[in-house]
Amino acid sequence: MGDQKVRPDSGGFRSDDRDALRTFYRTSDVYLKGLREREADSFHSEYLRMVTTFVPDTARLLDLGCGTGYSTLRLAQQGYRVNGIDISDKFLGETDAKVASGLEYCVGDALELPFHDATFDAVSSFDMIEHVSDAGQVLSEVNRILRPGGRVVFVCPNYCSPVIPLKALVNLLKGGPGYLSFYESIPAALKGIAETVGLTVAKLQSPEVAFLYRAPELEGSFDADVDCVYLPSPVDFKRFFEKSGYEVVRYSREGSSRFRRICATLAPSFTPTVYFVAEKKK
Predict the structure, then answer these.
(1) Could you please report the per-residue DSSP string of 99-118?
(2) Which runs of E-coded beta strand occur in the chain?
(3) Does the residue 167 lie in any domain?
């Protein structure tokens, strides 16, 4: 999309991407600084709202890819028994100050979760899955550790949405920046609009799951998910979990304003943010 080189699912998993990402998240001071700057309810509000709306506070919850653990702490303060897990011991290095009843942290890889089968009543994730080199394996691990009747909650960008290159185009036409590493020029943004519409339509027409990936950019400026490798789409989650025997509870129809909720209801697969909830059948 745009000027990116996108890989289909068949070429999605690459051990070099996985190793490079693991090293990056375990060593990057710049990335850690950015996570610290986002330690606020204003940044996490939609994620916290989705979890508290769709997961009962009696649940044992896994906060997957919790970063510095801010969201995990806030969920524990809401009454959940919650485990926060992240691949980076560097990010979790300051969690001694984040203490609450029923709260635990651990370092671990989402592709190989260190938990027994059917351990959790719910698994939630915020702006994390776009940073993994094998989204299908992560979703399989989530399915494995979730109990029957349990729920998954995902909030993340929809990088197959035409709204993102459209916003970049508007900014570029006004003389501002595009979308770093995705749509940095007017031709790239125009191409991105056409490609994302086509990709989403193709996903909707196919009964199969088709994860898409890009090469992450781990050097230079860190903004706008330049480090992302998986290009999320709500269609991917819907296809995967329906095939795994789940009931889809929420497919978009969410947003931080009335206008966004209306748009997400009218065109749920095309909105720029994924709001997804599914329940595992008992």
Answers:
(1) --TTEEEEE-BTTB-SS-TT
(2) 6-7, 60-64, 81-86, 103-107, 120-126, 146-157, 213-214, 246-251, 273-280
(3) no
Q: Alpha-carbon distance 159 to 214, whole Å?
A: 11
SS3 66: coil
Point out which residues pair with 251 in neighbouring strands.
Answer: 276
Separation between Cα atoms, residue 204 and residue 104, nearest integer Å: 39
Residues 170, 278 contacting (CB under 8 angstroms): no
Q: How many domains does the chain have?
A: 1
Task: Look at residue 216 and give its three-state secondary structure.
Answer: coil
What per-residue confidence (pLDDT) applies to 1? Answer: 63
CATH of the domain at 151: 3.40.50.150
Residue 204 placed within a domain: no
**166 lies in a domain?**
no
Residue 41 vs residues 33, 45, 75, 152, 163: alpha-carbon distances, Å: 17, 5, 11, 21, 25
Q: What is the pLDDT of residue 103?
A: 97
**Domain assignment of residue 177, yes or no:** no
Return the ∠ at Cα 136 (arms to 139 and 23), rounded to 5°.
90
Residue 14 pLDDT exceeds 50: yes
